[in-house]
Amino acid sequence: MLNDPLFLIAAAACLTVAVILGLGISTFGKGGAESGKRANKYMRWRIIAQFIAVVLIVAFVYIRSQMGG
Fold this sequence. Notes:
Layout: H1 5-28, H2 33-66
Helix pairs in contact: 1-2
Domain HIG1: 1-69
Keywords: Membrane, Transmembrane, Transmembrane helix
Transmembrane segments: 6-25, 45-63
């Protein structure tokens, strides 16, 4: 599986989601109006990145099932 480029891309997308989530949560903790705006922006990016990650995971599973392995 580690030799499959689609698996590596999907794993990187999941890691990206985790990093964006961490940034958003840490920004929420700082308080203030500007931090709130920035945290909301991070959470919007997280939703987009999470959608992409889910699509990549589904594509990986579908392609692997079609290859018989």
